[in-house]
Amino acid sequence: QVQLVESGGGLVQAGDSLRLSCAASGRTANNYNMAMGWFRQAPGKEREFVAATSWILGATYIAESVKGRFTISRDTAKRTVWLQMNSLKPEDTAVYYCVASTAPASLMSRIDRIDYWGQGTQVTVSS
Predict the structure, then answer these.
(1) Which of 40, 91, 105, 127 is the most exposed place for a label (fewest CB within 10 A)?
(2) Which pLDDT tens digit goes with each residue over 24-55?
(3) In whole angstroms, what is the distance from residue 63 CA to residue 68 CA?
(4) How many Å apart are CA 91 and CA 120, to the nearest integer?
């Protein structure tokens, strides 16, 4: 089992930056074949893929809707992944979930390939 704990959400203004963190723990968190990433869910909308990273090579995948503004990075020793969000827009307002999967990071845009979810952290961007 893997536990994912997010932090770093909050209320910011449009144009601001925010960095989310996610720490993984548990026995299978030591499985370096796991990929980690982020989904988000805005009010009244379905959860959508935001970003993912492969654990060993650090390959990254970013959703088109946030490409150029969001980046994902990881620290393998700390079992931590970060989502750096720049130039935030009101439409980025959502609950952001840290996710982990035994599937390749390239497939993590598919919600059915996600094995573990964090509890979520709220990001609110005011105009």
Answers:
(1) 127
(2) 998 765 666 789 999 999 999 999 999 999 98
(3) 10
(4) 17
